[in-house]
Amino acid sequence: MTNVTLVAGFLLVGFSDSQELQIVYGVLFLVIYLAILMSNLLIIILTTLDLQLQTPMYFFLKNLSFLDVFLVSVPVPNFIVNSLTDSNSISTLGCAFQLLLITSFSAGEIFVLTAMSYDRYVAICCLLHYEVIMNGGACVLMAGVSWAVGGLFGALYTTGTFFMPFCGSNVIPQFFCDVSSLLRISCSETLLVVYTSIGIGMCLCMSCFICIVISYVYIFSTVLKIPTTKGQLKAFSTCFPHLIVFTLFIITACSLYLKPSSNPPTVIDRLLSVIYTVVPPVLNPVIYSLRNKDMKRALMRLVHKTCGQESHSI
Predict the structure, then answer these.
(1) TM spans, by residue (predicted)?
(2) How much is the pTM?
(3) What 8-state DSSP symbol labels residue 86?
(4) CA separation for the pair 103, 158 (Å, rounded)
(5) H or E stretch including 90?
(6) Which domains does the chain have, with CATH numbers?
């Protein structure tokens, strides 16, 4: 029988072996993390307090912002602390929780983006029945299912990954626990549970992708029938931000989880992990807010209201 040493914890390498560079990366990620928190929390506040933003589109946008905040808050603060304190160890339980939360929030985000595409389809193709179809109960149900299915998939994915023993090297050449690195140090001869969960994930992603493609085929065919160019541009302006966000997220997710793992990981592997975890939460507020007149008006109303209350108190 081969003598193997089971892994009791892991070491997250990060981006550099140099402590000085790790501090620079830690400060950079801290700035990005604070920007993500402030921008997404601003969207959450506006879509919650402003009465004119109480629509299905902004309800799903609020859920997307929540998922973005939760997703980026799993690996990034841990990486910042590790970089600034020169500590890169993580327990097996901590690694499992990281994988559970990242996969859960990522899957939930894909389902919320799918719900948003359905909302745009109903708004453009079934305008007269929009309020009946996308009522409050339906929106809550769709959002609840997105969170619940995302959590179930994350639990299945994590259970399948940590069901197998790890032996040999305990080094994870990423700034968070990712599946490809864990599979590389697994000493299990059979990965049936892991591949089953990956297969389920691929089926779910493909289902969401097909639903979104079908929705946009109907949307574009309807929009092109609008007689005025101004009307077409207005309809497209509500669809393109969602399409950009979904395309970026699904491409990076598939590249990270479905690309054959290289040993050792390349710069591209680490870059994809950064794009997957950091870039969508950064871009979502920019894409949905800076070019959105409703969000700008809501922000101005909030500022005027806040300044008015302060002047009255003085």
Answers:
(1) 28-46, 58-76, 96-118, 130-156, 192-219, 240-258, 270-290
(2) 0.86
(3) T
(4) 8
(5) strand 89-91
(6) 9-307 (1.20.1070.10)
Of 42, 34, 68, 52, nearest in space to 276 by CA: 68
Calpha distance 95→75 (Å, rounded): 10
Cα 20 to its chain centre, rounded Å, is 30
And the tokens for 294? 């409703």
Q: Residue 291: enclosing H or E segment and its boundaries?
A: none
123/56 Cα distance (integer angstroms): 10
Tens place of pLDDT per residue across the chain (314 aa): 444 555 667 888 777 777 788 888 889 999 999 999 999 999 999 899 888 888 898 999 999 999 999 999 998 998 888 888 878 888 888 888 998 999 899 889 989 999 998 998 998 888 888 999 999 899 999 999 999 999 998 898 888 888 777 776 778 878 888 777 777 777 766 666 667 777 777 888 888 889 988 988 888 888 888 777 777 777 777 677 777 777 777 777 766 666 555 556 666 677 777 777 888 888 888 777 666 777 878 888 888 777 766 555 55
CA 33 to chain CA mean position, Å = 14
For the sheet containing 171-172, what is the strand order?
A: 89-91, 9-12, 171-172
Provide Rg for the chain, Cα atoms.
Answer: 22
Residue 151 tokens read as 């959590």
